[in-house]
Amino acid sequence: MLALLIVGSGEVNTALAQTVPGKAKAAPAQAAAPAPRPAAVLVEGFDYQVDGLRIRGIVCRPDGQAGRPLLNMVHGGLDSPVDKNNCRRFARLGYVVAASALRGQGGSEGKPEVCGREVDDVQTLRDLVQERYRTDARRVAYLGVSLGGCIAVKAAAREGDVRAVVTLLSPTNFAEQLDLLRPTRPDAVARWEALLGGPYRKISATYEERRPMQAVSQLQAPLLTVAAGNDPLIPLQQSCAVRDARRAAGREVTEVRQNKDGTPGALPDKPWRRCDGEAPGAQLGDLRDQDVLLVYGDLGHTSTPLMWKAAEAYLAANIEPPSPSLFERLRDFFRRSAQ
Domain Peptidase S9 prolyl oligopeptidase catalytic spans what residues (predicted)? Predict the structure, then answer.
């Protein structure tokens, strides 16, 4: 199993002790040792082709070792850059991390499609990285942030070898999002509608096609859905719909509700701020092969260190090395017998 490394730094009081008459002067406290520098990782950027477009990708690796698990990380928004800090972060945990600057963003050609053919950008990079860096084909995961969660779920649902999927504050209903933005951000609404091809009332089929709900139902891998109770862009009910779709597909979904500081969160009185029939626990329990809906009730549309630690723990629980195949067990048996 991948080890989960959490490095903390403590404070040391460096004030001199008080001088007491007739007593020896207390020695000054030792200055705090400098915090250890994070381990270096290998970072490589390159271009690749999808649909005749030049797409930019980045890969972060802990080292050159083959057989590492592959984490496909998908950024959010229409202007968000590839998250190099978290790319390095997960590489230090032992993953080979593949991140695409999706079409029309971050120097890639084309234009954004709002959870459309960006899925092909992600899957093509996954195949390239798996072949180039000889990652473990049996240990593949996806992590998507905001809009990237929609893309991550769609990509993972196409594949049968994915071990875990994590979405952080991710939309499932773009028409609803634009209605929420319309009173205060007409400029943003106009941009999204231009990318989608028009308003929902004229091209509702396009909006429905962009939604990830069919992929949510088809996804074979366990899914961690992280939502925020005060998110002004993505209502909690969109994540509740993910829970309902997973249960309808036969998956058990554990509900956990916390405050943004990690303390147990109370179930709100207002029905739109909770899922129908929600009965949450206060702490994450067994995460292996388990769907989880984690709600931070007092959080807006922003990620937090605790949220990223929850993602780390979920991935680690589901990406541990698989049991050896019969062929591998027989091979090892004959090797030992020959010694």
Answer: 87-258
